[in-house]
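Hey, I was hoping to borrow your eyes for a little while. There's a protein on my desk that I can't quite get my head around. The fold is given in discrete form, as structure tokens running alongside the sequence. I'd be grateful if you could look everything over and explain what you see. Here's the protein in full, and shout if anything looks odd to you:
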Amino acid sequence: MTDPQNIRWIQPTNGPVRAVVPVPGSKSITNRLLLLAALARGTSRISGILHSDDTDAFAQALADLGFRLSFDGGGECIIQGSGGKIPAQTAHVWCGSAGTASRFLAAAVAAGRGSYVLNATPQMRRRPMTPLIDALTSQGASIRTAPDVDALLAIETQGLTGGLITLGGTKVSSQYLSALLMAAPMAKTPLEIRTAVPVSRPYVDMTCGLMAQFGVEVDQEGYERFRIPAPTTYQAGDHVIEPDASTASYFFAAAAVTGGTVTVNNLSRSNSVQGDVGFLDILEAMGCDVASDDHSVTVTGPKRLNGVSVDMSQISDTVMTLACIAPYADSTTTIENIGHIRVKESDRISALADGLSRMGVDFKETPTSLTIHPSTPKGATIDSFEDHRIAMAFAITGLVTPGVGIQGADCVVKTCPQFFDLLQLLH
């Protein structure tokens, strides 16, 4: 739980930054690999695991479901796979504030046999789950939600029947689709998912790609139809997690807005499975130089950024990063097709609007977009709304504008507990 009264004051850099930043592992990859390895046949070794509130909650939830995980105290985990079964027939698990834990584990336990209670923070319980609940109910699961149960979900199930699932509401979260895809091999018969084209499609690509690494190929027609063989079992293997591209975006943005240079090692622009490396394309359009090979990415900022007009529906976790450097550009920036981020950890468009307004930035907010004009931001205390991405993005403004404080800054523990320590490397 964050302390909303805790204010973290950001120290300006007083010039271009120069740093190699050891960005921790990807949250999205970590939680997918933990689940796939747990469901696989055999023993998997996963290196580069992120330790944060979201990933630690996910790992503990798997342990509470009876899976066997062993951490070495660093970034490596050995997982004894269950061969496609949920070991515990009854369990009460805590998902914290993690959408990945709440949604992925709901589908996974629904594919098991037993009675399960999933609970989460009030913040997570406010986020939508209905499309996933409807899909799992159509597969035979009995699911109760508040006010019928004092928890996020109570699930009683005898497994997924297979056949056809029509998934609605994917413009709210691609996590519903990823959850169903990963649970599908446990179904009693082959499963087909039909859906509208979701936002954040790169996360669906990530899910399908990681499933293939565990031996299950998804037969995919665009983003409207997915066929998954079942019953079948994932096969264990060894995997290395790359740095989190969403977290890296803040440090690349620091280079961009200060005219400095930041390198992140072990991240590849061309080979990454993370869609948020697409943020590098936006930085290039803003005038940055981006150099990348198979082992690193380096961003060097220009003397003055250009404004851009971009559709960020597919890389919406970096909307906050762009919005917080856009006021320093020499022309207007427009960010479109981002209405779905209003139902994340916070209403992120409104949270951005609140912070930009406090800093005296000239902008326009619509239900699905933000337009940000060149401004001279002033120091201000920014409300994080207990949203890690709001806190981290506005921290970057404090590198160039004196007097920026982040209220409730400890919410960064959700995905990057060491964020402010890493930020010090830029000074």
